[in-house]
Amino acid sequence: MKITYLFGFILLMNTVFAQKEDSIQIASIYKNALNSTIAHKNLNYLCKNYSERLCGSENAEKAILWGKEAMQKLGFDTVYLQKTMVKHWVREKNEICNISSTKLGQFNANVIALGESVGTSGNGIEANVIEISSFEELKKLGREKIAGKIVFFNFKMNNDYFMTFHAYGDAAGYRVHGASEAAKYDAKAVIIRSLSLISSKNPHTGIMRYDEEINKIPAVAISTIDADSLSTWLKNDNNLQIYLKTNTKFLPETLSYNVIGEIRGEKTPEKIITVGGHLDSWDNCEGAHDDGVGCMHAMEVGRIFKDLNIKPSNTIRTVLFMDEETNQRGGKSYAEETKSKNETIIAALESDAGGFTPQGFSIDGNESQLQKLQTWKPLFEPYGLFFKKGWGGVDIHPLKEQGVPLIGLIIDSQRYFDYQHSSTDVFEAVNRRQMQLGSGSLASLIYLIDKYGL
Amino acid sequence: MKITYLFGFILLMNTVFAQKEDSIQIASIYKNALNSTIAHKNLNYLCKNYSERLCGSENAEKAILWGKEAMQKLGFDTVYLQKTMVKHWVREKNEICNISSTKLGQFNANVIALGESVGTSGNGIEANVIEISSFEELKKLGREKIAGKIVFFNFKMNNDYFMTFHAYGDAAGYRVHGASEAAKYDAKAVIIRSLSLISSKNPHTGIMRYDEEINKIPAVAISTIDADSLSTWLKNDNNLQIYLKTNTKFLPETLSYNVIGEIRGEKTPEKIITVGGHLDSWDNCEGAHDDGVGCMHAMEVGRIFKDLNIKPSNTIRTVLFMDEETNQRGGKSYAEETKSKNETIIAALESDAGGFTPQGFSIDGNESQLQKLQTWKPLFEPYGLFFKKGWGGVDIHPLKEQGVPLIGLIIDSQRYFDYQHSSTDVFEAVNRRQMQLGSGSLASLIYLIDKYGL
């Protein structure tokens, strides 16, 4: 055997042994995750005690203190709060949307104000309603047909896609921009079909944005069942009246925090792997799938490392971000601080796609980083995971300009929009094992990134 | 260019074009499945009108007639019933399991008789209870400790596995054989921890078998929460008394049916691709995940072919099997008839693993068949599916001796045992899109098998 062959053979065998060793370590990580009930109990506690954690709210602040204490109990080496100023929008519950027809009678539809939308005046708004299925149609109808009316955007999420986030991407524009687009033609208010793929009586809220140049009009989401009823009624009576009443306002901006826990690196503690979810939620739910689970995933990475006595070379930093839902102030503050401190972030990982069975990782990075992940594919095949190029995450996105590779946990998305931003997003909708597969997946990938770099 | 190269190039390009064409057809199949609500409505109807479809029961017979009519409405070319004799075991509901302690008080545990178990005498059984975690422990304790007692098998399903069916495989032995094993040492009855990975108050039933040489004693499953409570109480009082009362019996064997629908092949109608689920369910649930969904999957293959005007070369035969849960008489009758008629079954596919997101296919066949499936892997990557060697299915298994390749649809198993054989297995637990991904997966694979053989 030539010496170069021998050398090659040794290298190859080293790789084989390393993969074997890594495969054993990863199996023990998954085993630990699947057998632990701690994150499930923590999620239960968070959801039941500090539901409706919209940034700036009392419950958000309580959740922050709880998160700090919880990470201390889990044995993180350092736990601290990182300041971030947040907006503080509040909504009076039990919005009214009464639909009445001289021909058909009347019914109350379930609606919820969209995040950061203005309310109606104290007396509410009464007006005719017009159904619109696209911005093109809105434009075509123009001021003549729209002025003085309530615009009902009945854009249905598209069932064609395998990944439901693509359907969400198509539809979210109506929720985010519908009010200002309709206000261009002097609409009085907008009602948006909830972003969900199921028939349900529960409306789904979410952030909206006003064009500052245009008159701000109230915006609500209507449940999909009520959207279908409203559409049916409109086919039978195009003179329908709607009475809409919502009450929202901004309180002064308030000081809030990201919650950070670190497992200190043994060799190069100044180099950091960030993993996070967001602690805030909408104000109509427990925020279990969105994104209590992501917080649990990120906390579990630390717990599992401690429990299995895995001593990382680099610092593993778990971040419970504040304010993903409205203005991403937590994510921005985090990126600003890493930049001002000139920190080296090896990679940033995020979980914000629910607590269902994980399917893989998407990387927002360069080709060689994707290639490196692909070499680890065999290690994740027993757990059904794949790697692909794609989106990292909302909270870690501000790190991109520092050149940090961003990695998102891809989770089975089929049921996500059954729950997201609606009152059904509760602890009971999360299955412990499915959630813990996500914990194991993140901990395993971080174990490899820590060992081999990215 | 040498002529052989040219020939090779043409072959290669043919393959490329074929894959492109197949990819488009498969996309249209999934699109059709994901947009259709028919199967979801059919599942709703089946579950709400003909729940508790244990073989031999009135509801099973009604479901058979409904299944026939439903397939006729879907446009199958031929629909018929195939005779099969079935056992007819019945259970009086509201079994009693009262646990009492002179020290701790008493509580009623939720139990359910295991399938085909004998009942207690009319007055019930009262006895001390002993907790056992394995057959080894039972043997070690022997007659001295066991005789006259109720044996409580508290074997917990193992969380270590990624696929929960492996944990089920480990634990099912206690449910199936626990009674006869305990009766060897003169136990009076057995209580089995329900086969589920969650904490729940709902007991999960399932088939059990007696060793005909050994005295038959009553067997029940206890909910996992009550199993934990019983175990805790036993630690504090090893003199616990249990009063157990169940009432079961066999009625005479009865004539039942598999329901069969065919889409006639255009070229070789005498060659058949079989796809099936089972129509029977346990007598405590709606049988939605187990296996109403499998029936819908199998029916959807025909509906999708008709709707997209896909004209198969071979006959596509959908079978709603009777009696998977107890004695698999339907599957056996089907195999007997294909054999006696000397039919050519190209492949048999089965869906009996719930209505969650599909993950792939497992083939019980030879290496070249697995290789052939693997060449189609790129076509299924957009839908996250893999192929592997493995189990085909209970109902199609009798076809194995005729050399038929058997293919099982692999479905995300994390939540399956939350529902299986318990009262929570209802229509509402099934998500339309997840179920329809299974329909699209089966229809796509059958499209390829029909076109290229296996």
What does this structure look like?
The structure is a homodimer of 454-residue chains. Chain A has 454 residues and is an alpha/beta fold. Chain A has 12 helices and 16 strands. Chain A has helices at 3-35, 38-49, 58-73, 135-146, 164-183, 224-236, 288-307, 329-340, 367-375, 377-380, 416-419, 432-452; strands spanning 78-91, 96-101, 105-108, 111-113, 125-132, 150-153, 189-193, 219-222, 241-245, 248-263, 268-278, 314-321, 344-350, 358-364, 386-389, 406-411. In chain A, helix 4 links the parallel strand 5 (125-132) and strand 6. In chain A, helix 7 crosses helix 12. The relative contact order of chain A is 0.17.
Unreliable residue runs of chain A: none
**Count of extended strands of chain A:** 16
Biggest chain pair interface: A-B, 25 and 25 residues
| Strand arrangement across the biggest beta sheet of chain A | 1-10-12-11-13-16-14-15
Instruction: Summarize model confidence as the mean pLDDT of chain A.
Output: 96
Q: How helical, in percent, are the residues of chain A?
A: 25-40%
| Termini Cα gap of chain A | 34 Å
Largest sheet of chain A: 8 strands, mixed
Multimer state: homodimer
State the shape of chain A: elongated
